[in-house]
Recover the amino acids of this structure.
């Protein structure tokens, strides 16, 4: 007889309630704006229309740049034997994990360029790893023998097949880049402060914080939200296309052997990509930690050490507070994401079309907290929770962490859902037949084999919570954080402290991922 | 004396500590037929991949038409310069291309003229001309097998490697499949190496019956 503890519904109910409270509830005030006249704000006058179109072309350009760079990098890193491909693979996620503002300040330092085109380029470079990683992931999930069949016919056909295979995932990544950059206010704001002045829609939304008009902020975010929902629908169409392509079994195909000029060209291309995305901006920041005029009395090394010393002296509290927020967000992901992912797996695998459809709709709704612009989420959370009755909770340490955790929880859910899908169903069926309690059954058949993925999922939620800036600037209980201190320091000065702070922040964000990459690469090579 | 079309000398290959090939050698003459059998996991597929240049051995050589194609870990001839086609176990069809495009793309890539006409002829020879506009996902298992064979043959390879092309079929379907394979192979001048577990197929194909055991060809 089936024991009552084998029933997944109580566990699933509790997990989805947790998700609803932390991820969906803060979005509620935004829905009102979506179905009201606020969606048409860009068409109210010429200034707003200009603002919106500028936002569109900056985000569109950033998405195109990120897509173009990502496509080439993914193909070179996964399907060829180009030199540096392993280094590229390990370092590639770095820019994505850094706040775009950190990279923007480095690029301004390097080039001195400003204006909307520079903002577009900085946003595109900061997000280029997203299409690259999605395309690379898609290529590794495609039939290895299809690539090898092309390889037997010639390098041109092999290359064409690789591009055909990588293009849908690249386009999907570019759409996500569009969504992420359309709501960004910090990078355009930074370049605008350097003159000439220009505005984008994210800054229009954020501007309401100066007058304390949170409801106005929610209304102003409506057009961005509508735009992002439209893009999400486009992304879903591409996702279906990807499903047709990704029918492989995870075997690594033989790489395209590069010889002579093509080998040198590939090495050069990867060097340029790494230099532009990682080495140049971080190198510039490192130089800035000890930069001073030629008559300065101390050496660069001494000044640099002093800058890093200042970071740990002046910003230690902010860094620790940020780690606290990130740790709580990661813990939330650790507790909820495995069950949420398993719930989606159960629903989307159902035979009845209505249930499968419900599963897809739930998956779509689960992605929403991630795609909503941070500034919009910040205003919505203020409207909902900044009330006298909720004041202790709103001002307390847990509120901000839960808000961050709920926003980035979908990353963990979708990562685990994807990993669970790769496992055969039979071990879980065997556990059902043995009458295992539901949690034990999931742990035994799905999570035990994917422990690394569970930790990576929680770690990524923590890293993205650490990286978040816009939300932390708006929500008062999150103001005391490394991101906000960096934002403020950058706007008041441009000195060794800011550069050293940016680098410490970057190291903090990237170390867990570097460790994971190195470990998984070692396992793969074994 | 004419050198053999394909010659493998003392191939050695190990994954981690597990030795798969331990000095495997074989020869295939122009137009020859040979079958290769052996226990599951004995390295038959790995051997085919080494011959095709898709895998690099730790030691040993592969010569194609007397020319060194692989020398230890060095790939002297890339896979596309060997005149070898491989029909994979999972067929390796290109999912975004139609049946006709799957064949025509391959024909054009190897540098033959009139790829579309040749592709139509190949599909017609394999009895799937009416499926030219379909993508692989919309073909049955048997139709997809014919398409993979049509693609391989249309490029006019010197050597055709077949990796258990009927492995997943029931006995009756295997017999049917082998019947059309025999018909198609009768028209080709390519040397053929067929990996199979089925003694019946070994007997019907004729030629040398090779067996891979403990990493060596018996």
């Amino acid at each position: 007889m089936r024991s009552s503890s084998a029933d997944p519904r109580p566990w699933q109910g509790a997990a989805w309630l947790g998700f609803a409270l932390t991820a969906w509830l803060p979005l509620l005030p935004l829905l009102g704006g979506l179905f009201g006249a606020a969606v048409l704000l860009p068409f109210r006058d010429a200034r707003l229309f200009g603002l919106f179109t500028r936002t569109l072309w900056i985000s569109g350009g950033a998405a195109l740049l990120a897509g173009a760079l990502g496509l080439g990098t993914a193909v070179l890193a996964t399907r060829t034997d180009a030199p540096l491909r392993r280094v590229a693979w390990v370092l590639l996620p770095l820019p994505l994990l850094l706040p775009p503002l950190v990279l923007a300040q480095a690029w301004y330092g390097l080039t001195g360029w400003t204006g909307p085109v520079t903002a577009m380029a900085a946003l595109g470079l900061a997000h280029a790893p997203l299409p690259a990683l999605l395309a690379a992931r898609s290529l590794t999930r495609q039939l290895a023998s299809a690539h090898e069949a092309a390889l037997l016919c010639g390098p041109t056909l092999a290359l064409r097949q690789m591009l055909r295979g990588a293009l849908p995932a690249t386009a999907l990544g570019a759409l996500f880049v569009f969504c992420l950059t359309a709501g960004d206010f910090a990078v355009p704001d930074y370049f605008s402060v350097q003159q000439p002045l220009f505005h984008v829609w994210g800054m229009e939304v954020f501007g309401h914080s100066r007058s304390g008009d949170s409801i106005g902020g929610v209304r102003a975010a409506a057009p961005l939200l509508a735009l992002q929902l439209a893009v999400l629908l486009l992304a879903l169409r591409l996702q279906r296309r990807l499903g047709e392509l990704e029918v492989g079994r995870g075997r690594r195909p033989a790489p395209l052997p590069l010889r002579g000029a093509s080998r040198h060209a590939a090495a050069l291309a990867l060097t340029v990509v790494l230099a532009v995305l990682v080495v140049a901006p971080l190198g510039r920041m490192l130089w800035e930690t000890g930069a001073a005029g030629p008559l300065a009395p101390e050496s660069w090394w001494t000044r640099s050490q002093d800058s890093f010393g200042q970071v740990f002296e002046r910003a230690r509290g902010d860094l620790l507070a940020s780690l606290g927020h990130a740790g709580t967000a990661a813990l939330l992901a650790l507790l909820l994401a495995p069950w949420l992912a398993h719930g989606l797996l159960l629903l989307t695998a159902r035979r009845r079309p209505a249930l499968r459809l419900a599963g897809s709709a739930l998956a779509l709704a689960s992605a929403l907290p991630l795609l909503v612009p941070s500034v919009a989420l910040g205003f919505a959370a203020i409207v909902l929770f900044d009330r006298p009755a909720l004041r202790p909770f709103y001002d307390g340490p847990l509120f901000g962490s839960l808000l961050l955790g709920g926003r980035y929880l979908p990353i963990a859910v979708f990562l685990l859902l994807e990993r669970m899908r790769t496992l055969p169903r039979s071990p879980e069926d065997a556990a059902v037949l043995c009458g295992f309690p539901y949690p034990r059954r999931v742990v035994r058949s799905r999570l035990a084999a994917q422990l690394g993925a569970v930790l990576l999922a929680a770690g990524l939620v923590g890293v993205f919570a650490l990286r978040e800036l816009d939300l932390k600037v708006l929500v008062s209980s999150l103001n005391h954080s490394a991101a906000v201190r960096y934002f403020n320091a950058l706007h008041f000065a441009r000195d060794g402290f800011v550069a050293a702070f940016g680098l410490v922040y970057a190291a903090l964000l990237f170390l867990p991922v570097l460790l994971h990459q190195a470990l998984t690469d070692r396992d793969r090579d074994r | 004396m004419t050198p053999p079309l394909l010659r493998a000398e003392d191939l050695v290959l190990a994954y981690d500590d597990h030795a798969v090939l331990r000095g495997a050698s074989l020869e295939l003459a122009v137009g020859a037929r040979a079958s290769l059998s052996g226990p599951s996991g004995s390295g038959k597929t790995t051997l085919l991949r080494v011959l095709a240049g898709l895998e690099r051995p730790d030691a040993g050589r592969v010569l194609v038409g007397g020319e060194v194609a692989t020398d230890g870990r060095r790939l002297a001839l890339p896979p596309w310069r060997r005149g070898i086609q491989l029909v994979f176990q999972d067929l390796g069809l290109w999912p975004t291309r139609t049946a006709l495009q799957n064949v025509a793309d391959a024909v054009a890539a190897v540098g033959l003229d009139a790829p579309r006409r040749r592709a139509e002829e190949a599909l017609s020879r394999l009895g799937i001309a009416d499926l030219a506009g379909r993508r692989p996902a919309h073909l049955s298992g048997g139709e997809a097998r014919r398409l993979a064979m049509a693609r391989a043959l249309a490029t006019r390879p010197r050597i055709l490697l077949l990796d258990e092309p009927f492995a997943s079929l029931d006995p009756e379907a295997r017999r049917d499949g082998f019947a059309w394979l025999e018909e198609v192979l009768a028209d080709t001048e390519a040397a053929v190496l067929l990996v199979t577990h089925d003694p019946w197929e070994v007997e019907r194909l004729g030629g040398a019956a090779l067996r891979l055991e403990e990493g060596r060809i018996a």
